[in-house]
Write the structure tokens for this entry.
Amino acid sequence: MSNDPTHQFQISKIVPIEIGGMDFSFTNASLFMVATVACAAGFLYFSTSSRGLVPSRAQSVAEMSYEFIASMLREGAGSHGMKFFPMVFSLFMFVLTANLLGMFPYFFTVTSQIIVTFALALFVIGTVLVYGFYKHGLHFLNVFVPSGVPGVLLPLVVAIEIISFLSRPISLSVRLFANMLAGHITLKVFSGFVVSLGALGAIGIGGAILPLIMTVALTGLEFLVAFLQAYVFAVLTCMYLNDAVHPGGH
Amino acid sequence: MFVTPAFAQDGAPANGETHGAAGNVHTETGVAHGEHGTGVFPPFDQSTYPSQLLWLVITFGFFYLVMQKVIVPRVGGILEHRHDRIAQDLDEASRLKAEADAAVETYEKELAAARAKAGSIADQARDAAKAKAAADRASIEAELSAKLSAAEARIADIKARAFAEVGSIAEDTAAAIVDQLIGAKATPEDVKAAVAAAKVEA
């Protein structure tokens, strides 16, 4: 248990709450969700509070993230997709901040919990479905019928399209979850090597240098992954929203 | 507040072997872990799902509302304001440039006009000078020719008088010569006639 690399994903209650036999305790996971929201919203709020015509450094970071997501959504889902901007921007900032907060030692990584990423993915797919049917009615089903496919192949293609559509929430959530989980486990394992080799004396300390270098390199990689996964999540969200805005347009 | 349980997760296990005391301090949280850590991989521990879902909905919902109501309009407004301002500044710049161009054009026009005027003034002055010179020359020439003709008239007059006197001198001389040669007085009428005849022959 002492060097258990999965221990960092353990959820512990801080304020036990139980409603109707269900456990709704305020846990370390909840705490870091609150911290994520506080960091992201606080940063965006205070960095833009001066509304400078010439932005300060913090304000230009906030503006860059805004324009980054805005251009991503405009390219992915067209100008009609811009009504989903608050949603995509919230998802991106939430996932990015949660990933980056998770990089602090001893901090809990909200996005390393499959239930969290799955809930976010369902939120995206649910939005696509609800908006798609609300806006286009049954025409939304054109999503499953690509244009220009020969009639003979159509049933097969439609079946494939349906399966791919159904697998979207799974792939979207598992991608983020697995990346964060695997990265943190790897980091923990290699840094565990440093400690256990270092305990062996002089030779062990010499041998511990290799996993130490590895840990440093992996930390850099994990920062990249933290950003990349938030980016991928946002890009895929834009692509899926494009289906809701322009069904059959692919 | 959140460092204590977190420390219990990572710090205590790492030091657990050598620092038993440190491990004991955190037994409380260690027990809490024990409840969940019953061999189930933590992210797949379904007993934590309701709590995570509830708090995710609360926190993400709040975050979404803040983004939608406050941040997105504000940042969008900042960017739009800047965009407008830049466009306005560009308009102003092109307006000023047009003004400058117009000023340059009028300047050049005025310069050309002034140049033309200067040229015409010079031409006029030259023409006037030329005319005056011509007039002066004409008047001087006229004066000179008047003087010339007066002088010629005087010469003619003197010549005529001289000629006339030549007649009387010749008559006197002829009378004197005749008187000396023949000792006879020739009548003035005869001498005059003879001189006139000689004059005609000459």
Summary: Residues 7-245 of chain A form one domain.
